[in-house]
Structure formats: structure tokens, C-alpha cells
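Exam prep: given the inputs below (a chain plus coenzyme A), describe the expected output before reading on.
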Amino acid sequence: MLSYRKLKQKDLYQAYQLDQLCFPRGIAYSFDTFLYFYFYIDHYSLVAEENEGIVGFIIASIERNKTSQIITLDIHPNYRRKKIGSKLLSRVEEHLISLGVKNVCLQVEVNNTPAISLYKKCGFTEAKRLPKYYLNKIDALLMKKNLAE
Ligand SMILES: CC(C)(COP(=O)(O)OP(=O)(O)OC[C@H]1O[C@@H](n2cnc3c(N)ncnc32)[C@H](O)[C@@H]1OP(=O)(O)O)[C@@H](O)C(=O)NCCC(=O)NCCS
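Solution:
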């Protein structure tokens, strides 16, 4: 059965492996970066789990000025189009609202149609194009959502 819970330290390696599967080399985060996110930034992070295996996760930073950034949202290829990504995002947003966070942003590769479609469906809008954001050659979109609206 699929269940949702907070990301724990013991999940970091599995989350890292899933990220390697979801993103190309150079864009996927290193394991050290996962450790940095977990231990050094204020964050709210959830996993979707089935039979004790992580099938998806989300990491959202919480900044001092009551804004948040979706650092990553990863769903295992076998579990996509089941609304797991949308659910992780909406659960994070609910928590951010309870903390008084007003604005959430994220960066996404311009050609990442699945992610851009999901974010638009969930109320994000395109704010800006960021030239050569990934690997100094691929543009990103900066997307934003006002949680107060
Ligand atoms: C993008 C991603 C997180 C979507 O997760 P998901 O759980 O499959 O998404 P959902 O099932 O919640 O989809 C919600 C909506 O998003 C859109 N969407 C999702 N995947 C899509 C696809 N492959 N093509 C077009 N639209 C898509 C659809 O509108 C979908 O609603 P629908 O299924 O009723 O049409 C997943 O594909 C993934 O992990 N991709 C690789 C990592 C990544 O790019 N993460 C985002 C980083 S910014």
C-alpha cells in the first residue's frame, strides 16, 4: 500500500539513487548535496513509500523570509501518472501554509514537459526564463506560486 511520510536520514541514499534515475548526469544531485540539503538547510521533505521502498520524494527549502523553493520532486518511472507527484506537492504546500509561507518557487528545465504540466496544473506560473541554467547550456524556467491566493 502506498503511504506518505517525512523523509528521514535513513532514506537519503535511496532518495539519491532515485534522483540518479530521474535526472541525467550533471543535473542529478550528488550524495553530498543530499547530505547538505538534509543537515544544513531548513527544509520540509516527504517520501511516498510502497512496501518499504521509496517510490517518490519531494524536498522543499524553507527560507527565513517565509518563502520556499521546491528543490526537487522525483517519482520512480514505474509509478508516474498516478498523482503521486501532485500529492507530495500539495502536502508540502499545506505544511508551508501552516508555517505562514506565502511564496513558493522552483526551477525546471524548459523541455521538461511532464514537470511543467504538473506545476501549471498545481497553480504555478512561469515567472522568467533563466538562460543556460543547467550545465551552462540548458535554459530553465523559474516558476512561482502564491500560497496566499
Ligand atoms: C514530473 C514528475 C514529478 C511528475 O510526477 P507524477 O507523479 O507522474 O505526476 P502526476 O501523476 O501527479 O501528474 C499530474 C499532472 O501533471 C501532468 N503530467 C505528469 N506527467 C506528464 C507527462 N509525462 N506528460 C504530460 N503531462 C504530464 C498531467 O497534467 C498530470 O495530470 P493527468 O495525469 O491527470 O493528465 C515525474 O514525471 C518525474 O519524477 N519526472 C522526473 C523528475 C523531474 O523532472 N522532476 C521535476 C523536477 S523540477
